[in-house]
Amino acid sequence: MAQLSHDQELKNALSAPLVDGTPSYHDVTEAVSIISEVKTHRNWYIALAITGSITGMMGLMIAYLIVTGVGVWGNNQPVGWGWDITNFVFWIGIGHAGTLISAILFLFRQKWRTSINRFAEAMTLFAVACAAIYPGIHVGRPWRAYWLFPIPNEFLDMWQNFRSPLLWDVFAVSTYGTVSALFWYVGLVPDLATFRDRAKTKARQMAFGIASLGWRGSATHWKNYEKAYMILAGLSTPLVLSVHTIVSFDFATSILPGWHTTIFPPYFVAGAIFSGFAMVVTLMVIARWIYKVEHLVTMTHLENMNKVILATGTIVGYAYATEFFTAWYSGNPYESYVFFVSRATGPYWWAYWSMVSCNVLAPQFFWFKKLRTNLPFMFVISIIVNIGMWFERFVIIATSLHRDYLPSSWGYFRPTFVDICTFIGTFGLFLTLFVFFTRFLPIIAISEVKGMMAANEHEKHYLDDAVAASQGKQPVGAAH
Amino acid sequence: MAEKTKIHGMVGDFSSPDRLMDAVKAARKAGYTKMEAYTPFPIHGIDDAMGAKPSILGYLVICGGALGLTIAILLQWWTGAVAYPLVISGKPFFAFEFAVPIMFELTVLLSAFVAVFGMFALNGLPRFYHPMMNYSSFEGITDDRFVLVIEAGDRDFDAAAVKSFLEAHGADKTELVEE
User: Fold this and answer.
1) Interface contact flag, B57 A219, Cβ < 8 Å
2) Quick one: fold of A21-150+161-444?
3) Which of A363, A165, A122, A127 shows the shortest CA–CA distance to A265?
4) Which residues on chain B are in Cβ contact (under 8 Å) with A168?
5) Within the 197-216 window of chain A, which residues sit less than 8 Å (CB to CB) from chain B?
6) A106 touching B, CB under 8 A?
7) Best mutation site among B15, B119, B144 for testing chain A: the one with the most A CBs within 10 Å?
């Protein structure tokens, strides 16, 4: 009887549709490929013009910064780290959901990841690209930005300081960017081969032919491919956890009240996953509608992501509470001052309470199935969460810095128009990359969705048989 | 042309993974040894059915990871303690504690490089021409067709016999593919 209920339960779980209707393998190929094969729509050019101009604005701001100096930003004593680090941490965090979906959910055999992993991985890459801009332009002399890496050169007669968490960060972020790009490309190769084989024009055939490296889908190919994919997932899992851990070391290894805490690594990682999933929901709600792939990216996918947002948002709320508790319990007056005065009631109270309402309260609506399966509602919440997570980084950075131990050196951070326009510009870059990605590449992992469909088919047969057998009936799939 | 073209093998084209698996098992039973399956997605258990050895990629990746770890230790020790020792906050010139993050990152980085480029190398990619691309319905392989090829190098290869064997095991279509 226990066996029956377990099988029945599994069967019910499987019936939550990861693919709506009963499309054939060919239907999946068609649905995804057609997106890049149809004639470019006028709206695409309009979208590109808008996002491209925003990116152009970022280019102008960066050029102005390089020509003039970092002083064009609001950074100054005592707040020497302002929007640049805030935005860097914000974008890196966004990327984390992509790796979580592609690697960790893969290792946990979460089949629902297959329809959204390609898109989420693209988001990771583009977010890391946006993040990487900030340290590069904050170094003061960006033409010497390669000094961040231990490359022998004739100008710098010394080596990097490996005892500094900032250098760990350089290694963590560049490794993360590289591995994410490799992982993404490996996943793309079989689908690029599909595009190659469907190509109607010489140009497409050549481009996808080269990009797919001559992939043939032989059993030998798949054998090594699956091994590589598994290994990359295994490598990316600790990697993604390490990246935001090391980002948090930038703060945690300092001795500033509010930063010098051991809770930072898990707190940052949870926040990163939280914000990243919110960004995936924001983008997915739009993309599945524009590109008509609602049957492949189903409500089940969105609902699952909203559950992750609820869980991680609650963890983040717990971390906020823990910080206050530790500040009080430590008996350290400076630590208490940062939390109880600077953050909660000081000049940045508005930022702190925006952060709490966006990150802790807003996701709580997702306890209700009606709300977490409501498209406009989840879209709004996902944007609120992203605003909240930006505030989190800003609050952490600004509140700890703006009031030094000496009241004579207290200050208040105000962003300049360059700060603001550069940040808006990174959204332009992020979206421009997406506009290109959705136009030219398979936005859903075709081969993986097919593999998932085949596996589901097998499992259903097996479960039908198990349920039928426990009821003493002839197995349904007996003739099969 | 009088020149005799070389044969790559006989293709059998199947409509489902199950049919392909049945054919692979039957081919193995019938004594064919040189065969290859081509599918739009990985088919679970097909390597065992074909008698293929497991991938050696994992061992290569371990070597890559060990190399990355070694580089990370040597880099941090040599630059910090040998080439340019600089006192910073009284910290030691080299210690494993602070070296851990970069040891981890470089281990992961080199492992990932080997996993990806090793996979391509083991698969003989990039390779832009392969005899299978002469197959008239090659595009089906990356769409929804499941193909088994009994290669001409097989000891028992006899085009007519292989053709009827594949047809008997449910191939919707068979074709002789040339090199």
Assistant:
1) no
2) Formate dehydrogenase/DMSO reductase fold (1.20.1630)
3) A165
4) 101-102, 105
5) 197-198, 209-210, 213-216
6) no
7) B119
* Cβ-proximal residues to B125 (8 Å cutoff; 6+ apart), any chain: A213, A214, A215, A221
Token pair in block for residue B12 = 């059998």
What is the ipTM metric for this complex? 0.90
Q: Which of A227, A451, A455 is opposite residue B55, by nearest beta carbon?
A: A227
Beta carbons within 10 angstroms of residue A161's beta carbon: 15
The token pair at A132 is 């990487």
Residue A451 near chain B (CB below 8 Å): yes
% of chain A with per-residue pLDDT over 90: 35
* Number of helices followed by number of strands (H, E) in chain B: 5, 4
Which residues are bridge partners to A115 per DSSP?
A: none
Q: Say yes or no to pLDDT of B38 above 50.
A: yes
Contact check, Cβ <8 Å, A172/B128: no
CA-CA distance, A180 to A452, in Å (whole number)?
Answer: 22
Per-window interface: B 2-41 vs A, CB < 8 A: 17, 36-41
Any idea what DSSP says for residue B41? S
Of B37, B57, B106, the CB nearest to A218: B37
Task: Give the DSSP H or E segment for B14.
Answer: strand B7-14
Query: Would you tell me the crossing angle of helices A25-37 and A446-470 to the nearest 10 degrees?
Result: 160
Instruction: Please give the Cα distance from A463 to A474 (Å, whole number).
Output: 13
Query: What is the Cα–Cα distance from A424 to A90, expressed in whole angstroms?
Result: 13
Q: Coil, strand or helix: which one is B23? A: helix
pTM of the model: 0.87
Judge: B44–A168 Cβ closer than 8 Å, yes or no: no
Question: What pLDDT, on a 0 to 100 scale, did the predictor assign at position B2?
Answer: 44
DSSP A141: -
Verify whether the Cβ–Cβ distance A455 to B44 is below 8 Å: yes
User: How many whole angstroms separate alpha carbon A222 and alpha carbon A215?
Assistant: 10
Domain boundaries, chain B: 7-53+130-178, 57-122
3-class DSSP state for residue A158?
coil
Question: For A24-64, how does the pLDDT look when each residue is reduced to its tens digit (9 = 90+)?
Answer: 788 888 778 877 777 888 888 999 999 999 999 999 999 99
